[in-house]
Request: fold
Amino acid sequence: MIRARILLAALAGASLASPSPAQFRQQQQQPQRVQPKLVGIDAMRAEFIAVSGGDTVLFGGSSVLLGAPAKAILMRQAAWLRRHPAILVGIEGHAEAADTRDHALAIGARRAEEVRDFLILLGVPAAQLTATSWGKERVVVAGDNEAAFAANRRVQTVLMR
Reply:
């Protein structure tokens, strides 16, 4: 039995000697880098973003019209969503911080409905989608400059379950 272990260790290139105290400390000090495994809805979200190119589309100024870059992302989102009809999706409309509260809620709702309607036009079942406006309540970039405003004029597609 001992000969078999020695032979297996030799074939595997392993050393039968115990590590020195310095080697042992070095092994213990090196942090083990473990990549968390995504499961369930988190894995689906990661796949959705990777396949579609993102979960966010941007709008210009007070516009509710979808531009070519937004339509390209939404076409890829629609293809993925058609392959996963059991996934419920929230379409969340947002506005810039400079808008009044009422205007931000209204334009966020119109943007969310525009995206929802476009996804339905592309074949995503209406029952799979809900549209909501967050107005200016959930900014992604704080500030009162054009870069911040532009980043917050958006619709985000959120996989629910």
